[in-house]
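in:
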């Protein structure tokens, strides 16, 4: 079991999990692998035609195991330190300590590295040798790899992916340089301590790979390769942290979720590469037949994005820029299905075309298009970044989505409203249904947002957008006062995952607290117990809204059966099936704390909050909340809420920042400094 007695952010174990899928991951926004895995992946590099496209497997020079042959009574530990983004393996005897560290450099995203350090204890003088076992072979089933000349002591291979996603589509070239790994390393008798560093550089051009490798060598020369990486992680944690005075498993879960999610986001400043989004299992996974092939789903926009946005709007913008670059593919998807505007694919990879291997999802699970737009809306409300919309393609995307929803609706003479027919809701047990409550509500929200942006930019709002938004049917049973999942849903029918409960949050669809409660009570008992991991977080948020704190906690506690030891890797389903390193579930869990316990709600006009948390939590501190260019720190106890403005934008907005207390509607102006509310 993990032993994190002292620090909830450090996961240590004397052994590795028997299932290699549950090993810790080391990734940055561009490169990723699991420790001791023979392959790594590059963000946005896929191989294979539409239904088969998957992350291209690149042979990993980091797959090295350190052993000491013939040694007696060695103490062995494996540690993931989420504070420094570093995995380490330590072998300790009475005579020496050997440490193997592995990491993906957070700020120099083209670099991954490992080091071996041998340190002797005072009383010995004989040589100490560690063996390095590596099965590395520079071959790939997804790339046509060629050997190039060595560069500054590194071996070099490069090659194109074999099959483009669509005919004439991109076939990126991958270039890799790596430090050759010897079979063993020896600390000589007269040496007390020595470290050896091994670099891997990967890029999509020869120039970039050589530049990155040289940069790595220069940092090694001054002894600061690992410290520059650790510093980047320190800065990352400084800008965003959730700390609570509460049970250790909960604190460990939060650090684990944040580590794996933050590992996937672009660093601050100029990226130097095009970010291709975040898949359910992250960059460490996504080979053929695993973790949905590394494709991008609504998981990114609905489940991960709100957490990223709250802390790192710049990284959130990169996620949206990926969707903007995929707009052309989305326009083609809609056209092929006979509709106008843009239909985002259920599964997206390098082109924005539908790459789901099974046709039914691409054809019917269309709520993803609204989910994409909801991320744009949340970003707009949080940042007021008009440039993304006016100059960088955001408005074209917004307009195209509105157009799609209008063309997807049909008028019902009988009911005098618009219907959306033949869809699969988030609950994938049902398909070809009419008027999915979630799908129609998200379509309505898309249209309302599009009209709002048009008004802000003084663009005439098409009548059709207003009409369709006003008259689209969102099923409601006036007698039972709840939302049926779709036309003809019978209470008690089993549901695969969170669906109607998402109307309350994140959709914030207008309803009374009685209806909100009825929805929760109707769907909680019929939702698949072992279904996808993000489900129970959303039930928890619902109960927290209603101040039913214990009920919320019992829902959130269900998530712990999806967290594996010792490295807090999430599995999609609690029986261990589905995706691993399931960032979607982690995103839902973080939202339950970030938006549930605090009650944060981002609206057009304000950042609202309405805290509620269980008895075993005494204090919750959320550092680094971004709003309109300000950075805020919230400290919430049972007695008071303190809000501190830690950073303000250089050009403050015309209207001053203020906090609004939900229950009373009281307004508190926020300036640099701290305000306390009872």
């Amino acid at each position: 079991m993990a032993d994190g007695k002292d620090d909830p952010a450090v996961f240590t174990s004397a052994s590795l999990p028997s299932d290699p899928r549950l090993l810790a991951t080391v990734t940055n926004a561009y490169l990723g692998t699991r420790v001791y895995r023979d392959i790594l992946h590059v963000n946005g590099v896929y191989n294979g035609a539409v239904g088969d496209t998957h992350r291209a497997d690149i042979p990993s020079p980091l797959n090295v195991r350190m052993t000491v042959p013939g040694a007696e009574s060695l103490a062995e530990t494996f540690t993931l330190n989420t504070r420094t983004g570093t995995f380490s393996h330590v072998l300790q005897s009475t005579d020496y300590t050997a440490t193997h560290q592995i990491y993906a450099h957070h700020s120099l995203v083209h670099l991954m590295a490992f080091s071996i350090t041998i340190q002797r204890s005072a009383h010995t003088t004989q040589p100490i040798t560690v063996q390095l076992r590596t099965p590395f072979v520079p071959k790939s089933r997804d790339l046509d790899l060629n050997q190039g000349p060595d560069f500054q002591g590194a071996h070099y291979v490069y090659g194109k992916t074999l099959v483009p996603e669509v005919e004439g589509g991109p076939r990126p070239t991958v270039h890799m340089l790596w430090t050759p790994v010897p079979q063993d390393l020896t600390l000589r008798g007269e040496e007390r301590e020595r470290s050896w560093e091994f670099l891997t550089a990967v890029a999509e051009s020869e120039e970039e790979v050589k530049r990155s490798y040289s940069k790595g060598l220069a940092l090694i020369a001054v002894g600061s390769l690992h410290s520059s990486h650790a510093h980047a992680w320190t800065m990352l944690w400084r800008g965003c942290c959730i700390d609570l005075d509460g049970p250790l498993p909960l604190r460990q879960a939060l650090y684990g979720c944040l580590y794996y999610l933050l590992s996937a986001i672009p660093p601050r400043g100029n990226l130097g590469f095009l970010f291709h989004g975040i898949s359910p299992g992250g960059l460490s996974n996504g080979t053929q037949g695993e973790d949905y092939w590394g494709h991008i789903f609504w998981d990114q926009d609905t489940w991960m994005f709100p957490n990223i946005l709250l802390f790192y709007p710049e990284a959130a913008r990169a996620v949206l820029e990926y969707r903007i670059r995929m707009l052309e593919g989305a326009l083609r998807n809609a056209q092929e299905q006979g509709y106008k505007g843009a239909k985002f694919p259920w599964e997206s990879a390098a082109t924005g075309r539908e790459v789901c291997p099974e046709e039914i999802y691409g054809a019917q699970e269309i709520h993803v298009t609204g989910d994409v737009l909801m991320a744009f809306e949340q970003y707009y409300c949080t940042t007021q970044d008009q440039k993304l919309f006016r100059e960088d393609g955001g408005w074209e995307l917004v307009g195209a989505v509105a157009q799609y929803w209008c063309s997807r609706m049909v008028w019902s003479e009988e009911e005098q409203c618009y219907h959306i027919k033949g869809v699969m809701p988030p609950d994938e047990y049902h398909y070809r249904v009419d008027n999915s409550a979630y799908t129609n509500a998200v379509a309505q929200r898309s249209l309302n947002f599009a009209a709002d942006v048009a008004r802000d930019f003084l663009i005439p709002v098409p009548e059709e957008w207003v009409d369709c938004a006003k008259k689209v049917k969102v099923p409601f049973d006036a007698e039972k006062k709840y939302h049926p999942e779709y036309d003809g849903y019978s209470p008690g029918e089993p549901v695969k995952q969170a669906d109607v409960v998402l109307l309350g949050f994140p959709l914030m669809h207008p309803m009374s607290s009685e209806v909100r409660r009825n929805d929760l009570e109707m769907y909680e008992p019929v939702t698949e117990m072992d279904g996808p991991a993000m489900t129970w977080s959303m039930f928890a948020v619902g109960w927290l809204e209603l101040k039913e704190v214990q009920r919320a906690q019992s829902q959130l506690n269900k998530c712990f059966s999806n967290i594996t030891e010792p490295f807090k890797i999430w599995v999609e389903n609690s029986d261990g099936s589905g995706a691993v390193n399931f960032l979607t579930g982690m995103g839902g869990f973080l939202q339950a704390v970030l938006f549930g316990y605090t009650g944060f709600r981002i609206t057009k006009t304000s950042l609202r909050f309405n805290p509620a948390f269980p008895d075993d939590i005494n204090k919750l501190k959320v550092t680094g909340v971004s709003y309109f260019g300000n950075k805020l720190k919230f400290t919430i106890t049972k007695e008071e809420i303190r809000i501190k403005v830690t950073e303000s934008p250089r050009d403050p907005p015309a209207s001053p920042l203020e906090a609004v207390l939900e229950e009373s509607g009281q307004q508190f102006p926020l300036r640099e400094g701290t305000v306390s509310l009872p």
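note: The mean pLDDT is 95.
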